[in-house]
Structures are given as structure tokens and as C-alpha cells.
Amino acid sequence: MKILNLYAGIGGNRKLWGNDHEITAIEYKQEIADIYHDFFPQDKIVVGDAHQYLLDYYKEFDFIWSSPPCPTHSIVRFVAMGIKERPQKAVFPSMKLYEEILFLQHYYKGKFCVENVKSFYKPLIPPFEFVGHFFWTNFVISPFIGDGSRDHHGTIKTLQKRKGFNIEKYKVDKRTILRNCVEPEIGKHILDCALGLNKQKTLL
Fold first, then answer.
1. Residue of 7, 39, 86, 124 with fewest CB within 10 Å of its CB?
2. Helix, strand or coil for residue 153?
3. pTM of the full predicted structure?
4. CA angle 164, 138, 42 (to 5 degrees)
5. SS3 at position 116
6. Domains in the chain with CATH codes
């Protein structure tokens, strides 16, 4: 398939997709796009605005994955507003998330998945929910059993092991980059469901 991987980061969701597909990744930070390229040199990588790229090129792809920025929706950030040691400013939730869901639901003819964190409010459009995240798709996601932990409070070494990426040599915010990674097993499970290979999976 021709796959569009929006807000690609270093490629957590893409890690177990293999090399049989033609994948285009969009990432707006050059230093992160460079890491993605090191792990997936066969993919086409575009440094730019994923939201606009979706609007301009959606017709060219068979499957679209989108992971829009999540901080303004996060229940964790919302709860943290009450913690004096980690004060958070009140902000408007970014509606780009719902813009993309509605756009894909009504204009796009292929399979899609939009991923985001569990929100502090009842989702405006009902998602699938598992392993602490929301997924909006136009196909059925079969059950996925996990322990619910993403090791967000673990060490860099723990996070690298969990996500399957060694980024020790890069001068970047390793913790944030790794925490932003979708678990590779989940990325593969959802793509398998889109392809009709939808057996129940277990995250160990």
C-alpha cells in the first residue's frame, strides 16, 4: 500500500510495518526527521506541516495514520494544572484533531487511523480506546490486550527498551521523543486490522 504517516516523530507506530509498503512520513522538526531517516531510510520523508500535507495530498494514499499533537487534550496535563511543582497554563484544546477526523471520515476513500491520548473531556467523536489511548478509524480494531503502562516515568534506558529505539547518540530531548512514540506493537496491530489481519493481539 501507499501509506501516509503524519506527525511521524521517530516512527514508533511505523517500526513493525516492514518494508513492503511505500511510506511517506511527515515531520516538522528537522532533527527528529533526521532520526526517523536513520531508522527508516527507505521511506520518503518530508519536513513540513502534516496538517496541510494531509489536505493537499490525501488522495494519493491507500492508508493514512495521523498522530496530531496531544498536550492540549491530555488528561495528564489537565490534572497537572493543580500540581504546584508542575504548573500548567490553561489553553484552548487544538481542534486540528477533530478537523482531521471529520475530514478523513467524509472526504477520504481509503483506510485511516487518527491516534491521540486519553482526553480530559468526553471525546466529541467516539473513539476506540485501549492501552490508555484513543483511536479513530473507519475499520474495526480487534481487541488488543495490554498492561496499560507505557513506562512514561521510567528511565531513558527503560523507554528505549519499551519502544525498541536506541537514540543515545542524538542530542535531542530523548524522554519527550520516546514518550511520544506509539508502541510499535499497537501500530502493527492497527495496520493489520486495516489489512484484514485482525486477530486478537497481546502486548507483553
1. 86
2. coil
3. 0.90
4. 40
5. strand
6. 2-146+186-197 (3.40.50.150)
